[in-house]
Amino acid sequence: MSTTEIPVVASEDDRAAFRAGPVDEQSQQRLAANGLAYRRVPVDSDAFGPWLQSVARGFQDSERSDEHIASARERSSYRRVTGVYDPAAPVSEAPVGTIASWIGELTVPGGALIPSCAITAVTVAPTHRRRGIARAMLEGELRSAHAAGVPMAMLTVSESTLYGRYGFAPAAASATWRIETRRAGWIGPVPEGRIDFIPRQRFRELGPALHERARRRFAGEIDVPPGHWDNFAGTSPVAEKAGEKRAVQYTDASGEVRGLAVYAVHENHDDFTKAKVSVHYVLAETDDAYAALWRFLLELDLVAEVSAHELSVEEPLWWMIADQRAATITMRDHQYVRILDLVAALETRRFGAAGRLLLDVSDPLGFADGAFVLEVDADGVGRVTPVERDAAPDDAVVVRLGITELSAVYLGGVSLATLHRAGRVVTDDPVAAARVFSWHTPPRLSFWY
Ligand SMILES: CC(C)(COP(=O)(O)OP(=O)(O)OC[C@H]1O[C@@H](n2cnc3c(N)ncnc32)[C@H](O)[C@@H]1OP(=O)(O)O)[C@@H](O)C(=O)NCCC(=O)NCCS
Questions:
Q1: CB of 124 closer than 6 A to ligand 1?
Q2: Which element (helix H / strand E) includes 195?
Q3: Nearest CA, atom 43, ligand 1
Q4: Apex CA 120: angle with CA 119 and CA 124, to 5°?
Q5: Which class for 20: exposed (0-12), middle (13-18), buried (19 or more C-beta within 10 A)?
Q6: What is the pLDDT of residue 113?
Q7: Which of 369, 389, 437, 448 yields a CA-CA distance of 20 to 30 A from 202?
Q8: In angstroms, rounded to a whole number, what is the distance separating the alpha carbons of residues 204 and 405?
Q9: SS3 of residue 165 by DSSP
Q10: Hey, is 248 helix, strand or coil?
Q11: Angle at 207 (CA atoms; ends 206, 209), nearest 5 degrees
């Protein structure tokens, strides 16, 4: 499938209108009542540099050079950038609150894409913390996205405790692997194609189109913002330690490039047979490419350990090594999603089993509050009908839950039965409800944004 055959669910016009759209009035008024100004920051304006410095400071990072700012400006044109300003501060052009967002595309169970508001760069200056600035910005972006007709929102987080209160849930967990390579023992397939080294720039050129073809295989993946490819490949002019990155490609027997990987080797000067490899990115369009790239990485000479981040919680790799205890795997929350338009969200994904559920959903922000009948047919296609709260059809399984819990099960990686056992969902038939929301492949997200 070529990239042009993939339906563009978030059109460039929609994205541009959202980027240029106003800030949310309700949050603007709330902040103004506290003497603060909430406004958009055009990426090509002078206000962008101070905004970026505030983001860096907010993440306890160092001051940005002019070169960094120029590079970030060039790579930020896809973002809607917003700041909160304190006119009474001595450096009033530096915002005390920052947030950025854009309309991306989220893959859902079944391989469809749904427009989703990606949120990033959320910081509040330590001088202004815990006064409700982050809440005003988050609620503001969610209202703006909802008003623009965007059915989902999503983000990755620095701390797990921040976003549940706005209805976000960690719907795709990620796994970090540390593999003792000499112990692992490759027992997976040995594909016919070939692995070759390529310049990092070549990875940068091939990555976007390959990812466009690969991302529909996994719920949770999103379209990669263009600047991220430079981060993966180390091809940005301000990239640090770019020279340590090595790139390889997998070409299948018919001569098509089906996979890419970037990794770095860290020598062990005390014992040259015990180098460590950090895998920065493995991108595989086919199972062959996946097997060939991982085999290559696990069989590198002079390497004792390979580590990789942002893997799925259920990698086929686990079944491709002879000794599963050669891998130490840790899991954590990664891709957070938040349903804004319940009908659009549920009708876009496919479900694991037929059934009829009455979803009684509470949403403190009001976007998806109410009762909905979800009717799923034998093909896993769902139809949603809003109903009165006490008007459940007799044969529907009643499920009462918050928008955070519904968002948690949306990508099919969290079982509704587990949330029921955790006391977070009320239903008489957790098994039937869980079967409907299940999916055969766990969701994943292979990077941070
Ligand atoms: C996290 C951060 C943005 C919070 O900003 P803030 O303006 O202090 O947050 P608010 O005052 O609006 O607080 C909103 C709510 O979040 C809670 N909260 C804020 N920071 C929290 C934290 N670190 N852990 C747990 N709860 C937190 C508040 O208690 C408040 O709860 P409530 O409204 O439900 O009662 C800010 O501390 C920050 O910039 N941290 C460093 C950068 C960072 O990690 N950003 C997040 C990137 S994903």
A1: yes
A2: strand 194-198
A3: 123
A4: 115
A5: exposed
A6: 96
A7: 448
A8: 38
A9: helix
A10: strand
A11: 75
The DSSP line for 24-45 is PHHHHHHHHTTT-EEEE--TTS
CA-to-CA distance for 333 and 10, rounded, in angstroms? 26
| The one-letter amino acid at 111 | G
Question: Position 254: which residue type?
Answer: S
Is the shortest distance between the CB of 4 and ligand 1 below 6 Å? no
Residue type, 400: R
What share of the chain in percent tops pLDDT 70?
Answer: 98
User: Ligand 1 pocket: which of 124, 131, 137, 165 to mutate (most atoms <8 Å of CB)?
Assistant: 124
Contact 211, 314 (CB under 8 A): no
Task: Please tell me the distance from the alpha carbon of residue 306 to that of residue 264, in angstroms, as a whole number.
Answer: 10
The number of helices, as runs of H, and strands, as runs of E, in the chain is: 13, 17
CB 282, CB 293: distance < 8 Å:
yes
Task: Report whether residue 165 contacts ligand 1, using a CB cutoff of 6 Å.
Answer: yes
> Which amino acid, 376?
V
Joined together, the tokens standing for residue 391 give 């008007």
Which atom, in ligand 1's list, is nearest to the CA of 157?
48
CB atoms within 10 A of CB 137: 26
Q: Which domains, from first to last, does the chain contain?
A: 3-155 (3.40.630.30), 175-333 (3.40.630.30), 341-437 (3.30.1050.10)
309 band by pLDDT with thresholds 50, 70 and 90 = very high
Q: Is the full-model pTM beyond 0.70?
A: yes
- In this structure, what is the dihedral angle of CA atoms 393, 399, 400, 406, given to the nearest 10 degrees? -120
Percent of the chain with pLDDT over 90: 94
User: What's the token pair of residue 373?
Assistant: 């009948």
| The pLDDT of residue 218 | 97
Residue 174 identity (one-letter amino acid): S
